[in-house]
Design brief:
- The radius of gyration is 25 Å and the shape is globular.
- A hairpin with a 2-residue loop joins strand 32 and strand 33.
- It has 17 helices and 33 strands.
- 27% of the residues lie in helices and 22% in strands.
- The protein is an alpha/beta fold.
- The N and C termini lie far apart (73 Å).
- Strands 1, 2, 3, 6, 7, 8, 9, 10, 11, 12 and 13 form an 11-stranded mixed β-sheet that branches. It has a 6-stranded mixed β-sheet with strand order 17-15-16-27-31-28, sandwiched between helices. A 5-stranded mixed β-sheet has the order 4-5-21-25-20.
Length: 649
């Protein structure tokens, strides 16, 4: 039995609550009083605990095991159709002053701020007071102590999440380091109050009336949520996150984007490091030379595939440190080092196959939670692009919406295609299950970063690869990123949108200050990583991809290695950066004929439009908050384009 300090409240409880220090206990008591859960469960992260939680969810109809013998300890979840993706429009940063989040351009001109939505702390508190009271009535409040990064690492940070969702507990156990060791580390730290406070509720008290309301509103009774009133609030000055109404991963696994990017980016600004939407990978060539690379791509643009790539070039090897988020900090010797703060993969399932990512297909057969994929009569899962070995027309497939006999040619009455799996369906798998995981993935000191790659999904304009002239130019390239949109967010309508640093949905503070923070990282004595930009998605007249991608992207990494080693013969200057020479990228042994001249060409008309779009974006979004260093880079680009109308390689 848990009792409040004043003994006025008591709640049935499980776990060793003596491990909670005064700050954690105060945080817990605050929300027990507000949310009125019927039970408390302090999580220890053990296998036994996880199995019991899965059994509870199975009995409630929330989760089902995969019975196919090719899968071991794998589970599948089907969410409510209204709760399937991140909700950028309902995700807000809450501070006393708007300028702390919204740059001058968006404030002054009244332009819709694209780079983080703001609300005052006071107003958000009012909204939460309308939602949170009694929201956990009849439910268990789980207390999850977790570490972002290896427990005890000088680069790691600790969080405590409260939630009423066992799905969240099981998923957080995969995605973060959960357990009593986290509490002991916090208690032994110089500041036991230095943790990020994470409060989450699905927003549906557990009662017969609540289930009837869920059914009446056409909601899935086994997936409680309150989609009409979803709010995800970040209070960076309080080091607190409050999420209400959604059970979906990005909205409820608060260690992911909420903590590891939005709150962490604010902390990083204050402490002099970066929290970025980046993969980290170890690349080695046939000579045994090793380089660590960080790369930023928008969601569902190939980060996981690149991080686990099987190179097509003999002797090349890629190992994965992480596929989504990187925390980067310069060490005492001036090297930029990075850790993956997460402990698992939360990958997009559709499009993942033995061809695109064989390592991901291999690892998801063990200890994986699948969300919104299709089930088959074989006791396994299916999604579009999987390329199964069985015939879909003769195999019973149950779609993510519960259609019992889904077939590939199914369409709605309006003629729209019916998918088996949701386009944003996911697999949640521990890092340790990846057969190409880097041995240093759990190193408390992180790994040294030699290069940073920016990229996106562009059918034209952006060449296959080019290199920034220097650090400041590389920061400008990150600020200028644009990409075709994907299904990772539910409320996005643009086809081609600006997505600087692939951080558009994840900025935790004023974008102008963010850019200046990046620029300020360059200091005497520091070994600054080289910065590159890639585009695997160029298309031809028939909408065909011009570059084979996947394992053949090793050829681009080979060129990057040459540039890191100072090989000037493989690159030439252009208005946009250093581009490969005509023979700079090895293509003579490619199975597919490629037009390297077109892949590397720079169309002056398209680039003039690109420069104008970048200039307008920075003006509207930043205004006076645009750093002088970025203005200088933008003006220099215009001058170079005017001097040289085109570059043909």
């Amino acid at each position: 039995m848990w009792r409040s300090k004043s003994n006025e409240m008591s709640v049935e409880a499980k776990g060793d609550f003596s491990l909670l220090n005064n700050s954690v206990s105060g945080f817990l008591e605050q929300y027990v009083r507000i949310c009125t859960p019927s039970r408390l469960h302090l999580c220890d992260g053990s296998d036994e605990e996880n199995q019991k939680l899965c059994d509870v969810m199975r009995e409630a109809g929330m989760i089902r095991p995969l019975t196919n013998t090719d899968y071991s300890n794998c589970w599948a979840v089907r969410t409510d159709p209204s709760d399937v993706a991140r909700l950028e429009g309902k995700t807000l940063i809450c501070t006393p002053e708007q300028r702390q989040v919204v740059a001058e351009g968006a404030r002054k001109d009244g332009t819709n701020n694209m780079l983080g939505k703001w609300m005052s702390e006071e107003k958000m508190d009012t909204h939460m007071k309308e939602r949170l009271p009694g929201c956990m009535k009849g439910r268990t409040m789980y207390i999850i102590p977790f570490s972002m990064g290896p427990v005890g690492s000088p680069l790691a940070k600790i969080g405590i999440q409260l939630t009423d969702s066992p799905y969240v507990v099981a998923s957080m156990r995969v995605m973060t380091r959960v357990g009593t060791s986290v509490l002991k580390t916090l208690n032994a730290s110089p500041d036991p109050a230095a943790f990020v406070r994470c409060m989450h509720s699905v927003g549906r008290p557990d009662s017969k009336d609540a289930v009837q309301v869920q059914k009446a509103n056409m909601r899935l009774p086994t997936w409680p949520c309150d989609p009409e009133r979803v709010l995800i609030a970040h209070y960076p000055l309080r080091r607190e996150i409050v999420s209400y109404g959604s059970g979906y991963g990005g909205n409820s696994l608060l260690g992911k984007k909420c903590f590891a990017l939005r709150i962490a980016s604010w902390i990083g600004k204050e402490e002099g490091w970066l929290a970025e939407h980046m993969l980290i990978m170890r690349v080695s060539n046939p000579e045994g030379e090793v380089r660590y690379v960080a790369a930023a791509f928008p969601s569902a643009c190939g980060k996981t595939n690149l991080a686990m790539m099987e190179p097509a070039l003999p002797g090349w090897n890629v190992q994965c440190v992480g596929d989504d988020i990187a925390w980067l900090k310069f060490d005492s010797e001036g090297r930029l080092r990075a850790i993956n703060p997460e402990n698992g993969f939360f990958g997009v399932a559709p499009g993942t196959s033995k061809k695109t990512n064989p390592n991901a297909i291999e690892m998801v057969h063990r200890n994986t939670i699948f969300t919104n994929v299709a089930f088959t009569e074989r006791g396994d899962v299916y999604w579009e692009g999987m390329d199964p070995e069985y015939d879909l027309n003769t195999t019973k497939v149950i779609s993510w919406r519960g259609i019992p006999y889904w077939k590939p040619n199914m369409r709605t009455m309006d003629g729209d295609k019916i998918s088996a799996a949701h386009p944003n369906s996911r697999f949640c798998t521990p890092l340790s299950e990846c057969q190409v995981i880097d041995p240093l993935y759990n190193s408390p000191d992180g790994v040294p970063i030699d290069a940073i790659i920016f990229g996106g999904r562009r059918p034209d304009t952006i060449p296959l690869v080019f290199e920034a002239f220097d650090w400041a130019h590389g920061v400008f390239l990150g600020s200028a990123m644009r990409s075709e949109t994907t299904k990772a967010a539910a409320d996005v309508t643009e086809r081609l949108r600006h997505d600087p640093f692939a951080m558009r949905p994840f900025f935790g503070y004023n974008f102008g200050e963010y850019l200046q923070h990046w620029l300020n990282l360059e200091k005497p004595g520091r070994k600054m990583p080289s910065i590159f930009h890639v585009n695997w998605f160029l298309r031809g007249e028939q909408n065909e991809f011009l570059w084979p991608g996947f394992g053949e992207n090793a050829r681009i990494l080979e060129w990057i290695f040459k540039r890191l080693n100072g090989d000037a013969s493989v690159a030439q200057s252009s208005p946009i950066g250093m581009v490969p020479t005509s023979e700079g990228i090895r293509c003579n042994d490619l199975a597919q004929n490629v037009d390297m001249k077109r892949l590397l060409s720079i169309n002056p008309e398209l680039w003039s439009k690109e420069e104008e779009a970048i200039r307008m974006f920075l003006k509207e979004q930043l205004g006076a908050d645009c750093p002088d260093g970025i203005r200088a880079q933008l003006n220099a680009l215009r001058e170079r384009l005017q001097k040289k109308h085109s570059t043909v390689v």
